[in-house]
Amino acid sequence: MFIEALRNLVEQTPGGIGAVLMGYDGIAIEQYALPVDDVDLGLVAVEYANVLKEIKKATDILRTGELDEVSILTGGYQVLIRTLTPDYFLGLTLRRNGNAGKGRFLLMREASGLRALLS
Q: How far are the Cα atoms of 49, 56, 76 from residue 101, in angstroms, in the given order?
């Protein structure tokens, strides 16, 4: 049910290599990834889930509003994260030179449909 949305995110985003629907507990509900030799996308998702949980706590403490989106840029990759519910988020991993703008747009577009399915 979720795999089609994740596949579309990866295939429609230039430079996209993986997408995951995951809980803040680090357990993936569903994931889709292209074969990549130089990085373990499952491990990336779990580790960034931990970071995202801490960012979410900080926004709660600071009362700056609900966390909507996080973007992480490293030497080789970009990770775009959009929150879906208090328990789940959607992540998209791209090569460093991928089109983050299109990825952000597609994450935003898919978010409402996935929220409905998670409810």
A: 22, 23, 17
Contacts of 69 (CB under 8 A, 6+ apart): 80, 81, 82, 83, 104, 107
| CB distance 100 to 71 below 8 Å | yes
Neighbour count for residue 76 (Cβ, 10 Å) = 10
Note whether 110 and 20 are within 8 A (CB).
Answer: no
- pTM passes above 0.85: yes
Cβ neighbours of 112 (radius 10 Å): 10
CA neighbor of 117 nearest in space, from 95, 74, 88: 88
pLDDT digits (tens, 9 = 90+) for 85-105: 999 999 999 999 999 999 999
